Amino acid sequence: MGLTDLRDFDLCITDVLLVLRLPTDPGRGWNGYMEGRRAWGVNCVMSGQGMLIYKDGSATKFRAGDVSIIPINTSYRFYVPVGTGPCDNCVINFQLSGGQDLGIDMDKATFVRPTDFSRVSKYFEESNQHWERKEPGYKLLVMSKLYQIIYDILTTRMQCQRDPFAYRQTLPAQQYMVNHYQENITLEQLAQMCDLSVTHFRRLFKSVYNLSPIAYLLNLRLEKSKDLLLANNYTLDSIADMTGFQNSNYYIRFFKQHVGMTPQQYRKMY
Questions:
Q1: 147 CA to centre of own chain
Q2: Would you list the DSSP string of the chain?
Q3: Is the pLDDT of residue 249 over 80?
Q4: Which listed residue, 19, 41, 51, 185, has the most CB atoms within 10 A of its CB?
Q5: Do residues 45 and 22 make contact, with C-beta atoms less than 8 angstroms apart?
Q6: The predicted structure's pLDDT at residue 5
Q7: What is the mean pLDDT of residues 41-70?
Q8: For residue 168, what pLDDT band results from cuts at 50, 70 and 90?
Q9: What's the pLDDT tens digit per position in 89-145?
Q10: When comparing pLDDT for 5 and 32, which is higher?
Q11: Is the dihedral of CA 227, 232, 236, 241 positive or negative?
């Protein structure tokens, strides 16, 4: 199964087995998977760097900001090289229903660098908190985060595969939008970040994300506003200002056009 269309992807997580934070000092590691993993895993590198050394002798280096998915039966050991700083990882082990895979290399870990790493790392941190507290429903909560983590890994990989050159060229602008969505951002400004003309930038960006840069920015603002609607009793004026919309009237119209209800209705529903 390829990753050309995630709508064709049918994924069912049957169990979450472990969530663990793994701070590791230089010169140390872990050999527990040399005979093969007994479960799938996702891993987030919170800080530092390290490497996975596979049973065939090959190795994959990783660093802070990397997120990976590791197939069941993969044989490897984890090591933090001498001369580097401590490496902090968070891992989630889980099972899928029989016969399924994720359309990736089944012998080695697949690493990606999510465009919104702060959001993905937050899923890992919250999963770790739920697992440690073990309050009623904790596995269900972790599973909900895990679905989002896997989705982010797959979509990031898909974007990279769709047009690797365009992905690398437009990544500075995409990351800037993620981190500064609340600011006034122009198309010319984004194109300049990538050393591209506006026309060339717009074409490359759309080839990767299937959206124009401005449509991507507005969608990002919309999703951030949903979080604010549910997080606290912010006024619509405040939410519009915090997410970069021109004013609350424009925000309400845009929200209703794309969500099918007003922000107030969305807040009451959820």
A1: 11
A2: --SS-GGG----EEEEEEEEEEEE-TT-EE-TTTT--SSEEEEEEEESEEEEEETTS-EEEEETT-EEEE-TT--EEEE--TTS--EEEEEEEEEE-TT---SS-SSS-EEE--TTHHHHHHHHHHHHHHHHH--TTHHHHHHHHHHHHHHHHHHHHHHHHH-HHHHHHHHHHHHHHHHHTTS---HHHHHHHTT--HHHHHHHHHHHHSS-HHHHHHHHHHHHHHHHHHHS---HHHHHHHHT-S-HHHHHHHHHHHHSS-HHHHHHH-
A3: yes
A4: 19
A5: no
A6: 42
A7: 95
A8: confident
A9: 999 999 988 545 566 888 899 999 887 888 899 999 999 999 999 999 999 999 999
A10: 32
A11: negative
Burial (CB count <10 Å: 0-12, 13-18, 19+), residue 30:
middle
In which residue are the tokens 């050394």 written? Answer: 53
What are 60's two structure tokens? 């994959």
Q: How many residues does the chain have?
A: 270
Q: Which amino acid is at 135?
A: E
Amino acid identity, residue 218? Answer: L
**187 against 100, higher pLDDT:** 187
Structure tokens at 184: 């006034």
Token representation of residue 223:
């999703």
